[in-house]
Design a protein that fits this description.
The chain is mostly helical and about 350 residues long. The protein has helices at about 5-35, 45-60, 65-100, 110-140, 150-155, 165-170, 180-190, 200-205, 205-230, 240-265, 285-295, 305-340. The protein starts with a helix and ends with a helix. Residues about 145-175 have low confidence and may be disordered. This is Peroxisomal nicotinamide adenine dinucleotide carrier. It is a multi-pass membrane protein. Belongs to the mitochondrial carrier (TC 2.A.29) family.
């Protein structure tokens, strides 16, 4: 099994576990990002306060709205990203060794090369998986208020209906599962509707690029210190990986958060009538309207929640991924040794 495949599978596994742990925070954060009301019009709710509000008004299930496509998207994104990251990384390492043979460099991959490798992997990932995240964003931001006309008609009809008829009428409210969201997106924008927000998302490949550049740099320095102290440079604990992943994600999130808000605004269901603040015709239009109607505050809505969610998710992902890679390589090595021993002499 190749290193690229091992990294891809381990990344997918780590991403799924991290997603399950942090998903309610992600749902709340997406709602905060897509809230188009200026700060002065209402009091901003804290993360936990908004989470309890969702549970009270819509039930526990809404905190996990879109979980199934999100898990698929996470597995696909992490698998694709780590697979191509390892391929591009191998090529960068081979190029570095070749330069060393010619008398240039020390044979290691530099910071700029790490950034380029992460950026290329991110672009491939975005282009392949963006449709999944459009669906997830729609499902995370869907609330009971999304069907006002039907709800209002039910409330006006209840006076003339028996309790049994009211229950049956409520049961007829259209569902909002994955297939319904796909039909809705296709009906609004055709096939290209699934690539809404792809432009700011492509720019946002700088987030994992910065994240992995910081992670690789910190890890390299840690291993170098271990080697200088006489310890095994590969003897990095799961807790240390957790902390390095958290620090790397924190730095990347602070820098790129405004792009994430714009992306979520574009991928959420657009209001086709009423307040012009809620209508976006593209990335530039969204940015200009956010500045005009909300100020720069709008670009940082929910940032506190995102930092907690993304840092925790990244830390768990790195820790689980490294342990899965280590365990898989150990099993493969052990299997190869056992196979050699079992051969007749």
């Amino acid at each position: 099994m190749s290193d690229a495949l091992i990294s891809g599978l381990a990344g997918a596994g780590g991403g799924i576990i991290a997603q399950l742990i942090t998903y309610p925070l992600q749902t709340v954060n997406t709602r905060q990002q897509t809230d188009r009301d200026p700060k002065k019009e209402k009091r901003s709710l804290g993360t936990m306060e908004q989470m309890f509000q969702v549970v009270k008004q819509e039930g526990w299930g809404r905190l996990y709205g879109g979980l199934t496509p999100s898990l698929v998207g996470t597995a696909a994104s992490q698998g694709v990203y780590y697979y191509f990251y390892q391929i591009f990384r191998n090529k960068a390492e081979a190029a570095a060794l070749e330069r060393k043979k010619r008398g240039f460099g020390d044979g290691s991959v530099g910071m700029v090369s790490s950034l380029v490798v992460a950026a290329l992997s991110g672009c491939v990932n975005v282009l392949l998986t963006n449709p999944i995240w459009v669906v997830v964003t729609r499902m995370q931001t869907h609330t009971k208020k999304s069907l006002p006309s039907r709800s209002e008609s039910l409330s006006s009809e209840t006076e003339s209906l028996s309790s049994k008829e009211v229950i049956l009428a409520a049961a007829e409210l259209p569902p909002y599962g994955t297939s319904n969201v796909i039909d809705e997106i296709y009906g609004e924008g055709g096939v290209w509707g699934f690539w809404k927000g792809v432009f700011p998302t492509l720019i946002m490949v700088s987030n994992p690029s910065i994240q992995f550049m910081l992670y690789e740099t910190l890890l390299k320095k840690l291993k170098k210190r271990r080697a200088l102290s006489g310890k095994d440079k590969n003897d990095v604990t799961a807790l240390e990986i957790f902390l390095l992943g958290a620090l790397a994600k924190l730095g990347a999130t602070v820098v790129t958060y405004p792009l994430l808000v714009v992306k979520s605004r574009l991928q959420a269901k657009q209001v086709t009538n009423g307040d012009r603040r809620r209508q976006y015709n593209g990335t530039l239009d969204a940015i200009l309207k956010m500045i005009r109607y909300e100020g720069f505050y709008g670009f940082y809505k929910g940032m506190g929640t995102k930092i907690v969610q993304s840092v925790l998710a990244a830390a768990v992902l790195f820790m689980v991924k490294e342990e899965l890679v280590r365990g898989t390589r150990w099993l493969l090595t052990r299997g190869a040794i056992d196979s050699v021993k079992s051969k007749p002499k």
